[in-house]
Automatic annotation (TrEMBL):
Transmembrane segments: none annotated. The keyword Oxidoreductase applies. InterPro entries: NAD(P)-bd_dom_sf, Sc_DH/Rdtase_CS, SDR_fam. This is NAD(P)-dependent oxidoreductase.
């Protein structure tokens, strides 16, 4: 039964932040809609959770599939209270002049266009019920510039600005919007960025203490627990062991 429960839709629930958020929201009684491409992982997670779960393999880059997903959403799961727009990725860390255009396209298609497809469909639901919380997972990279961040960072800058503009459009409704900007967290993020090179991924975090997926899940729980009149517009969380490193001068 979902009728007495809040319902959260989490994209990218097969790993990292999304998976940890699903587990934590389930502990707090949420019914869950879980999306990712790796269906087996979603079903394994579903079996662990003691709440109603609708888990579906979906590639958010496919606009048609996203629309069909929402048209065929079971009625019991359709009054979505919380959307966590989490699915996303970085591919590569090469400087722009050496980067792969294919990688850039995948990041734009996922982090920007996929997020838009899901958001637009959920807005239809939230508009009807005049209620809801949208939490977009941006990144500190949306503001900071670093070598090799190029298109990944730019997609997260998009998420930041889109979140602010959503707030402007939704002004006067009971629909909240947050841009949550984590810094470095040890998930599968670097493994994906470095295309399965586990040693290189591990080296990003060694001799540092990165954020954990649980840190982000707990922040998401805190955001959704704020009273009705409070909107958390943006929140940035970095590990103590990470910061900006200033401007550089080329020494010839
Ligand atoms: P993970 O790689 O562990 O998780 C990413 C999730 O996104 C997976 O569940 C993956 O599922 C899903 N995903 C990727 N592409 C698609 C797609 N086309 N359709 C559906 N789902 C997709 O990384 P994180 O948990 O770290 O990343 C989550 C979000 O947090 C991302 O948006 C990332 O940019 C952001 N972020 C991460 C930081 C970090 O340091 N870890 C810091 C700041 C922001 P599947 O492969 O099964 O489809
Ligand atoms: C990723 C955060 O700091 O690894 O979004 O670039 S960082």
């Amino acid at each position: 039964m979902t009728s007495s429960r809040h319902i959260a839709l989490i994209t990218g629930a097969s790993s990292g932040f999304g998976r940890a958020t699903a587990a934590l929201l389930a502990q707090h009684g949420y019914a869950l809609i879980l999306i990712a491409r790796r269906e087996e992982r979603l079903h394994a997670l579903q079996r662990e959770l003691m709440v109603p779960v609708y888990a579906k393999s979906l590639d958010i880059r496919n606009r048609k599939e996203v629309e069909v997903f929402f048209h065929t959403l079971p009625d019991a799961f359709s009054p979505i209270d919380v959307l966590v727009n989490n699915a996303g990725l970085a591919l590569g860390l090469a400087p722009a002049q050496d980067a792969q255009l294919d990688d850039w396209e995948v990041m734009v298609d996922t982090n920007i266009k996929g997020l838009l497809y899901v958001t637009r469909c959920v807005l239809e639901i939230m508009k009807r019920q005049n209620r809801g919380i949208i939490i977009n997972i941006g990144s500190v990279a949306g503001e900071a510039s670093y070598k090799g961040g190029n298109v990944y960072s730019a997609t997260k800058a998009f998420v930041s600005q889109f979140s602010r503009n959503l707030r402007a459009d939704l002004f006067g409704t009971n629909i909240k919007v947050t841009n949550l900007e984590p810094g470095a967290a040890e998930t599968e993020f670097s493994l994906v960025r470095f295309k399965g090179d586990a040693a290189r991924a591990k080296s990003v975090y060694e001799r540092s203490t990165p954020l954990t997926a649980q840190d982000i899940a707990e922040t998401i729980l805190w955001i959704v627990q704020r009273p009705g009149h409070v909107n958390i517009d943006s929140i940035r969380i970095m590990p103590l062991d990470q910061t900006w490193n200033g401007l550089v001068m080329n020494k010839k």
